[in-house]
């Protein structure tokens, strides 16, 4: 319903606003702006003339735009109405609006909206440096655009390459739009769907959206799709663009739009891929360049070198501001945070001691601590890795310490196994890290490597993940989308033919394909699970061998983030860790760790004493519950727990071999 109110304004007190947010709020429109509507009437949206509806919604959106053009006085701000929920804007909205106007992307606002309306292909490219405001402002402008069109084909969906980025951005955008997270603004990540029936702007992990697209006809139920951080080159992001290019958006009902947001380094490649699509280039952020310092040689101990560099900054009174440290892996992040916490506690510095914060996928909800400004006098030291190359903009950063290395898992089709590869970051990543220290005044960037290494060994762009991952899950999704030949799909970088062939062979060995090369009944069931095809097959086989309970636990533990934070630091911790080990090997040890975690009441202190990743174990617990619910929906049998018995041990081995026989 669209509720039309009389012209006389009604003030909603600020203290009552949260209560109003809990229910459905009408869109308040002044009747003199729409003479066809009578005051006090409720007009069903479905019965309204489309042109009148568009006029009503566009007027509301422009009212929001006028509110943004000039900050009103206190009395006027009480009257200004949010067009998305019909409630007055809060004072916090105008404070954040001033920050938004200062972003480099703001200068391109009207040009972007003009291209979004008139693009001949339905696609708009946006190119800008990290920290320019692309990820927070573009979704809001697309929501205004979709509101003006009445959300004819669904909500605005924003893809992110990392689940934590989707969650963090949704929270920030909800604050900037003065809306409620979980109602008008939401996010979808593994084991957590924070959306509702009234959600009109959703941030989503790109792999989840790819699974949704594979399960539906057409491209999906969205009015505008924003593919953010395209330069990260995730498999899902690349494949989504390929599927959308093949779809031909202008031929779809509802005239949907696609926005691809990228770093300038990938701009030429995307321009060639999306021919004839307009591009919006974000102006470069004003400000001086940070002081750049190289090391002549790479230190043998990166953690120690990074810690010493941080301590040196903390000793310098003329070097204020927060610090961002890049290390290759999560283990080194944990070691660095522990070492810095000890050293900074003993360091004699004026004011309160700095706060050390890790930033990696295993942090879970704790990642919001990076953005909390509880005390501006407390210096923050954020220790991270490749996760924060382009995502997670932190305006308070003044100093960057860059190790120049990343630890990645790379799949080899020849041996059907992944290996951990320590390699130099790309030139694009190095530049993005340097720009984190840009501002007023400009900060500093210390590179723990020589300039020759960057020039001679670093590739120009990040490695495309489609060339480095096991493609079995990808091919399974393409087959579900009824794409007969996955090799014919458009890719920004085409996978190696042998990698695609090996993925098809593996699916055939797993009985996921029929004689015609299409998905078999078993393959359709396998594609329902958020697991690797081999692991999903082992889980289904456990129904036959009566060890479903144990296999559910093992599937969750193998899929979630690693359960260990680091090696034991002392003899006592090593003894507690050994007590969790099982004589049958790693798989049984993972089950035993999970059961002990549950018996402890999911106690974080219990995990810390054993060097276990509490957030990862919580994630495994949520995933296990999701798998149980999925098996019940498919009407697959469950079994009673029997872990530890000799029969269960043999049954678990049989189930594992049913899915992983190619590893023998």
Automatic annotation (TrEMBL):
Domain Helicase ATP-binding as annotated: residue spans: 115-283
Coiled-coil annotated spans: none
PROSITE patterns xrefs: HELICASE_ATP_BIND_1
Main location: nucleus
GO molecular function: ATP binding; helicase activity; RNA binding
CDD domains: SF2_C_RHA
Keywords, ordered alphabetically: ATP-binding, Helicase, Hydrolase, Nucleotide-binding, Nucleus
Functional summary from the UniProt entry: Might be involved in RNA metabolism; it is missing helicase motif III and may not have helicase activity.
Protein known as: ATP-dependent RNA helicase homolog DQX1
Native source species: Cricetulus griseus
Origin organism lineage: Eukaryota, Metazoa, Chordata, Craniata, Vertebrata
